[in-house]
Amino acid sequence: MAAIWTRAARALALSLGFSAICGVGNAQSGPVVVELYTSQGCSSCPPADALLDQLAQRRDIIALGLHVDYWDYIGWKDVFGDPAFTERQRNYSRAAGTTVVYTPQMVIGGVEHVVGNKPADVERAIKKAMGVVSPVTLSVVKNGPLFVIEAQSKQRADMVVQLVRFVPNQSVKIRGGENNGREVSYSNIVTDWRVLKKWNGATPFTVKVDPKGAHHAIIIQRAGHGPILAAARLD
Q1: pLDDT in tens, 151-168
Q2: Considering the entire predicted model, what is its pTM?
Q3: Which of 12, 145, 167, 217 could cysteine-pair with 189, CB 3.0–4.6 Å?
Q4: Are residues 226 and 95 in contact, defined by beta-carbon separation less than 8 angstroms?
Q5: Is a pLDDT exceeding 90 seen at residue 208?
Q6: Comparing C-alpha atoms, which of 157, 123, 145 is closest to residue 216?
Q7: Cα–Cα distance between 14 and 116 in angstroms, integer?
Q8: C-beta separation of 213 from 147 below 8 A
Q9: Positive or negative, the Cα torsion across 71, 73, 78, 81?
Q10: Nearest CA to 208 among 216, 102, 77?
Q11: Which residues are CB-contacts of 10 (< 8 A; sequence separation ≥ 6)?
């Protein structure tokens, strides 16, 4: 993550009881967002789930697991599956000019589509995402129980500011489908993905978020499931 904070500035922020993430010059301002579309009913998914767990340990990445529901028919209903995540994946496919969806799929930076159980391809896509300059600068400052989120853009464009809630980890004993009998551990399981506001970048914006103890990320993305331009954890 490219940051414009000096050590002295960080020390001052910490002494005031604040924490912040602020950056410019990356594919996105802040960590690269990696979305894994996965299913407990898919026998090819556990290696991708394990890879996502490794990525979740990195501070230069926001790794998010989105469980789809279209494999539920084969004998096991994914306990984290959500049709909204299936629709998000389909929208990515439409934006890429195709109708194909599959698991495990990783979408990196909102642009790169990679088979999620191929680590070398995933790492190449992450490095590529880190090399593209974003026009958006994002700052997240913790002030008591609230996070104050500020952003500005060098370009005008239709964007969406999104708030994502996720569970850090949970193991599931699978009793049906292709993974019958396995216990699989999952990381950064998305439980809610919502749009906070639409933004065109013409003027800076500020919004306050109260996470109420849950784990969240803020993501600014080009409208129409385009590139992710800025992201930060709220922790």
Answers
A1: 999 999 999 999 999 999
A2: 0.88
A3: 167
A4: yes
A5: yes
A6: 145
A7: 37
A8: no
A9: positive
A10: 216
A11: none
* 3-state secondary structure labels for all residues of the chain: CCECCCHHHHHHHHHCCCCEEEECCCCCECCEEEEEEECCCCCCHHHHHHHHHHHHCCCCEEEEEEECCCCHHHCCCCCCCCHHHHHHHHHHHHHCCCCCCCCCEEEECCCEEEECCCHHHHHHHHHHHHCCCCCEEEEEEEECCEEEEEEEECCCCCEEEEEEEEEEEEEEECCCHHHCCCEEEEEEEEEEEEEEEEECCCCCEEEEECCCCCEEEEEEEECCCCCEEEEEEEC
- Specify burial of residue 172 (Cβ count, 10 A radius: 0-12, 13-18, 19+): middle
* pLDDT value of residue 56: 98
Euclidean distance between CA atoms 8 and 10, whole angstroms: 5
Amino acid identity of residue 26, one-letter, is N
From CA 143, how far away is CA 126, in angstroms rounded?
Answer: 31
- CB of 218 closer than 8 Å to CB of 161: yes
Longest dimension (CA), the chain: 57
- Joined together, the tokens standing for residue 165 give 């809630």
The amino acid sitting at 48 is A
Which token pair is 230?
Answer: 């800025």
pLDDT of residue 235: 82
Amino acid present at 235: D
Q: How many CB atoms lie within 10 A of CB 79?
A: 12
213 CB-near residues (< 8 Å, 6+ apart): none
Q: What six digits make up the tokens of 229?
A: 């331009």
> How far is Cα 46 from Cα 184, in angstroms, rounded to an integer?
7
